[in-house]
Structure formats: C-alpha cells, structure tokens
Amino acid sequence: MSTIETPAKKYLRRKCAGGHGRTSVMTVRSCPLARSARPFVAPFLLLLVAGCTHGAATVPDPGVPRTPPGAASRFAGLVGCFTMVELGTGETVEYGGEECDVRTSPASTFKIPNALIAVDTGVVQDENTVFRWDGKERWRATWNRDHSLATAMWHSTVWYFQRIAEQVGEPRYRAYLSAFQYGNADPSGDVTMFWLNDVLKISPREERRFLTALYENKLPVSPRAMTVVKKTLELRGDAIENVRDRLPFVDQIPAGVVFSGKTGSYLPDDGPPGPLGAIGWFVGAVEKQGRTWVFVCRIRSSEEKKIGPEAAKISYEILKGEGML
C-alpha cells in the first residue's frame, strides 16, 4: 500500500528542503522543525478547513486599538510604542502609531526565543541547566559566576546565551526564526552577536504577535519548551531577589497576579547613540483571574541611559492604570 503524503508532511518536506521541494542534506528527520511541526502546521490547516465549513467560528476582531490613559505623558521626551492584547478576546490597547511597526534590534528580549530554541533542540534541558563561568571578568558583576537558564534570564547574562548560540548554529536559528515569523529572521554574521549588533530586527507589533503565539502555546516548538521558558520569565519567588535592583516595582505586584517580563537595552558600539540610537524594551505577560494579556513596550532615545528598566517602568505604570497590577 502506498503512503499518502498529507498536506502537513508536504509542507514540512518543502520547508526542510529549502522551499524547492527537492531532497536536501537536511532531511525531514533531521530538520529542526520536524518533531515540533504538528502544533505549528495543524492550526494553519484547521483554519483552512474552518473557512470551508458553514457556520465556522472566526478569530475575534480586536477592532480599533484603545489608547491607554496618560500614555503621552509617560513617553514624554522619548519615541515609543506600547502595545497589548488580551488573549481570547483580541482587545488591543496601544500607543505609538507607526512607531509600533518600526523594526530595531530586539537586544536582550531575544533571550526568549533563544531559550525556546535551546530547550527544543536539547542544548539546554530545563531552567536548571547550569553552564560554568569561564573565569573572564565582565562588566556586570552578577555575570561573573555559574548560571542556570533561569538565573541567566533574570540577570540577562549574555555569555550564557552566547554559549547556547555556539551550539545551535546559524542554520537552525534561521529555520526557527522563520517559523516563528520573528521580525526579519536574520541570524547572519557572528552567531553570538546577531541579536546585539543590529542584524536581527523586529517591531513591537511583531514582538507582540510572537508573544501571543507563545502564551497561546502555538509556537512550533515542544509544549515543554514553552512551559520551561515561560516559567523563567515569571517575576515572583526567587526571581524577585534577582531583579529588584533593576525592576523595583516587583515588590508591588499584587497577590494572585502572575507578572512575567524581560528587559532589553541596545546601545551602538561605535560611540554615543545618536538620534534615537538608544533602544529599550520591556515585554511580557500578565495573568489574572483566568485572563491573560501580552504586552510590549519599546522606547528610543538619543540619551545613553538605562532605557530597558525605563521601558519596564513605563509598562508597569500603564498596566497599573489599566487595573491589572
């Protein structure tokens, strides 16, 4: 009996063959997307089927985004975007207009997809996987010690994620980032620096869509990878002691609310930031009373300062004003 090639298998074979439908060195079995393609391809195929079914449910229309109160004053002196969506309803809160579609370096917010890829490929087993410090002194004192995936996420330990990058390699990054639809999906050049040197770029709205897929468990990685990484982003328990110096508001998070977040700061290496050259991010999620919101805040400035924590402060104030914190 001949084997019938399903649309999902056909899609996977073509992606693993470079989109040309020909056999390549990367077979379907060795393709990094192979074992996790089902949760990615299946929803797409189901949507196609639903479109042909009478009375099928449709994705909620978020309508016109609502502007958060006081947003203009919170972003005073900065160019910024805040965008948030409630999962399930699609209700969107947003400030920034066209700025929300401008792509920049993701800076350390890339540690989120980096960790997902690391767990999915087996480079890292879980949040407790420890990499030994190499003994090199780095500018942030908290980096100069052994780190687990969890502590490296809390302290934004660059060397930990660079060690992951050396083991993942550019071909697998390119495949995963394309599947994630993560900005320009470009990991070219130095595999340990592409998210820090303005090669990889993503907009706030694209980042929000990526986080939405993560918190809806729809990314093309294993469910376990998504669970592990989301746990490292939660600002509670041991995380509080490790992030309080940069995110002092963590002590004010109400009981019963799960607040998750990751900062990112980018400054060019060749001198002062110049016009809007300093970039700060804070991205994450709020889970409260059975409801979940994902949010993204990015600011740009001509001043060299701790703009990642500044983006976090703005996010906290907006979320508090929305009654979530």
UniProtKB/TrEMBL annotation:
The modification N6-carboxylysine is found at residue 111. Keywords: Antibiotic resistance, Hydrolase, Signal. The keyword Signal applies. It holds the Pfam family Transpeptidase. It catalyses: a beta-lactam + H2O = a substituted beta-amino acid. Its EC number is 3.5.2.6. Gene3D superfamilies: DD-peptidase/beta-lactamase superfamily (3.40.710.10). GO terms for molecular function: beta-lactamase activity; penicillin binding. The active site is at 108 (acyl-ester intermediate). One of its GO terms (biological process) is antibiotic catabolic process. Residues 80-320 form the Penicillin-binding protein transpeptidase domain. Belongs to the class-D beta-lactamase family. This is Beta-lactamase. It comes from Polyangium fumosum.
